[in-house]
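Please, structure for the following, as tokens.
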Amino acid sequence: MKKTMMLVLTMIMVCGFTAAVMAADKPNGDERKGKYNFRQTCRQCHKAGGSAKELGPDSKTMAQWQRTFEKESYAKLACKAEWDKLAAADLNDTLSYLYNHAFDSPSPAKCK
């Protein structure tokens, strides 16, 4: 009986640690605020006929969005000045929106 209980407890702990590690990779911002931020800040240029390449949530994979939002990565973009105006929380919210609706996400979406 003790061995069975120890085995069950060990399995529960392993599952808990695995879930925690997997959740750590996913952005945890407010998706609704991120959608608003994207439409107000980015969409002005990243639309058909805009001054930058047309871009929507499903334009990239989840991994590509995460790489884009790394400090070293967006520092090279032409719109770096716009990114610098946003608070860290706003960037995290925007990443959450784009990541959760990326091309390879469970619910890809296009920004209209």
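The chain is about 60% helix and 0% strand. Confidence is low (pLDDT under 50) at residues 19-24.
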